[in-house]
Amino acid sequence: ISVNNTIRFKEEGDQGPNVIPADIVFKITEIRHPIYIRNGDDLEFTASVPLSRALVGCSVEVPTLDDRNISIPINDIIHPEYVKIVSNEGMPVFGSKNKEKGNLVIRSQIDFPQKLGPDAKAMIRQAFAYEK
């Protein structure tokens, strides 16, 4: 079943003698979630990551729809297009007998510092210095 769709049960409404039952119609409308974007059975989550952690790795805390908090380790360098996919943590797949779920897709918003002092700038220059 897709979102913003209707489900029709033909002639399943009020029934009586000499009356053709009406259809029962359910309209499914998606309501925007405050932290997730739904994409089919997948859920997309945007994590706010400080620049210092984006460069060296970190764990991202993600609240789930079933009231758990999961910690997702990211050991890669996180860049603006970086995406981490966690299998089976998305929306429940309609009709699945095995309780399958879609994926959790984690995107990152990198938080850059507003100001850096001279010492911090010198340390960053030294950390990124390399020989050609």
Explained architecture:
This protein is mainly beta and 132 residues long. Helices cover 12% and strands 36% of the residues. The strands form three sheets. It has a four-stranded mixed β-sheet with strand order 3-4-8-7. A two-stranded antiparallel ribbon has the order 1-2. It has a two-stranded antiparallel ribbon with strand order 5-6. It starts with a strand and ends in a 5-residue tail after the last helix.
Structure, briefly:
With 132 residues, this protein is mainly beta. The protein is built from two helices and eight strands. Strands 3-4-8-7 form a four-stranded mixed beta sheet. A two-stranded antiparallel ribbon has the order 1-2.
Give me the secondary-structure topology.
Blueprint: E1 5-9, E2 24-28, E3 36-39, E4 42-50, H1 51-56, E5 58-63, E6 69-74, E7 83-86, E8 104-111, H2 118-127
